[in-house]
Design brief:
Helices cover 29% and strands 20% of the residues. The chain has seven helices and 16 strands. The strands form five sheets. The protein has a four-stranded mixed beta sheet, covered by helices on one side. By secondary structure, it is of the alpha/beta class. It has helices at 19-30, 68-78, 85-104, 137-160, 229-236, 281-284, 314-332; strands at 6-9, 12-15, 35-38, 55-56, 119-120, 130-131, 167-170, 173-181, 184-192, 198-202, 205-208, 269-273, 290-291, 293-297, 302-304, 310-311. Bound molecules: flavin-adenine dinucleotide (FAD). Residues 15-21, 38-41, 46-48, 50-55, 137-138, 174-175, 209-211, 221-222, 225-226, 229-230, 248, 250, 264 line the site of flavin-adenine dinucleotide (FAD).
Length: 333
């Protein structure tokens, strides 16, 4: 068995191949840099493929009153004004351009009757704002980004004789450490999941695009990859984590039967919680809470009323806890 360590040198190492990581890779390559993309699963299989509803962008196609300022206001309100206003502002301003960009790169969004990119409602949005592709928007997004990266690699093959001369994907590779030298980030270290072989990547810039921490909850719709590795890597490297109480979740997850545990209840279902109203959020977090739910299947006009008690979902617990925490913080301010 060889004891020599596999080593690579790049300008930028991107940890994560979801929407965030792949977009960062395109940007870095277009700036002329040599990029490594490292991901725990296969290229094209990040959690992003599971996003169903769509991407929020105030293009105003469904309602011309929509614009970035309304989107910004909705976002700040949704975050109880605790969110980072500059990030919310950039998100609201730039998201229409990102959707156009995806379309230019080959994404096929659903259309309105006039042929514009269709937009639909989503929680907290004043106007219909989600650009979508049926219920598989995330898949289309990843497919498009993947295609864009392959196109850049093909161009590199034509120009430099090697498709992987500027962008190389290292799939099924888990990063365990961000390396530092003289107090500065100098690369990453990790191992191939298939055979346990370790490798070291030297790079003056490391981008952590490792997704969320949803898998820390027992019942969750999040992919197995979302174990918060990036948060831990950043902390261990001396970084600060901000707004950790803002965990993203969907409050409508399947709890029973076990075969579908954690699966997101799609947007076409509306789950009405009958008795949640004015009680304090902390009371709802009791693990013995039970509730009745009524599910109306809007699209088929069929009304399915579930009258048996179902246990409150973990996601709903998270929602309650989050609400309590947010309130406590705003009261303290
Ligand atoms: C069921 C569901 C539906 C959703 N629907 C929507 C929606 O409709 N609209 C919307 O805007 N958002 C939606 N979201 C949220 C959205 O999916 C995420 O916010 C988004 O996909 C995050 O993208 P990302 O690139 O940051 O991370 P991810 O797509 O999670 O990618 C993370 C990447 O990091 C890699 N990685 C992690 N740790 C390591 C490590 N240690 N070493 C190497 N690689 C690592 C993973 O392998 C993966 O490639 C939904 C979420 C869920 C759970």
């Amino acid at each position: 068995m060889s004891t020599s360590l596999e080593r690579h040198k790049y300008d930028v190492v991107i940890v994560g191949a979801g929407g965030a990581g792949l977009r960062a890779a395109v940007e870095a390559r277009e700036a002329g840099l040599k990029v490594a993309i490292l991901c725990k699963s296969l290229f094209g299989k990040a959690h992003t493929v599971m996003a169903e509803g769509g991407a929020a962008a105030s293009m105003g196609n469904a309602n011309s009153n929509d614009n970035w300022m309304v989107h910004f206001r909705d976002t700040m309100r949704g975050g109880k004004f605790l969110n980072h206003f500059r990030m919310a502002e950039l998100h609201a301003k730039e998201s229409p351009d990102r959707i156009w960009e995806l379309e230019m790169w080959g994404a096929l969004f659903d259309r309105t009757k006039e042929g514009k990119i269709s937009q639909r409602n989503f929680g907290g949005h004043e106007y219909p704002r989600l650009a979508h592709v049926g219920d598989r928007t995330g898949l289309e997004l990843i497919r498009t980004m993947q295609q864009r990266i392959v196109a850049l690699q093909q161009k590199d093959k034509r120009d430099h004789g090697d498709a992987e001369s500027f962008i190389k994907v290292f799939a099924e590779f888990t990063v365990t450490e961000v390396l530092k030298e003289n107090g500065k980030v100098a690369g990453v270290y990790g191992y191939y999941r298939e055979n346990g072989h370790e490798a070291l990547f030297e790079a003056p810039a490391v981008i952590l695009a490792t997704g969320g921490v949803g898998k820390t909850f027992k019942i969750t719709s999040n992919s197995w990859e979302g174990t918060g590795d990036g948060h831990a890597l950043a902390l261990k490297a001396g970084g600060n984590l901000v707004d950790m109480e803002f965990l993203q979740f969907h409050p409508t997850g399947m709890v029973w039967p076990p075969s579908v545990r954690g699966i997101l209840v799609p947007n076409l279902f509306v789950v009405k919680v009958e008795f949640l109203p004015t009680r304090s959020a902390s009371a709802l977090c009791s693990s013995t809470s039970r509730m009745y739910s009524r599910i109306s299947m809007q699209t088929t006009k069929l009304k399915l009323i579930v009258g048996t008690p179902i246990k409150i979902t973990t996601a709903a617990h998270q929602s309650c806890c989050h609400a309590t925490k947010s309130r406590a913080r705003s009261t303290a301010k």
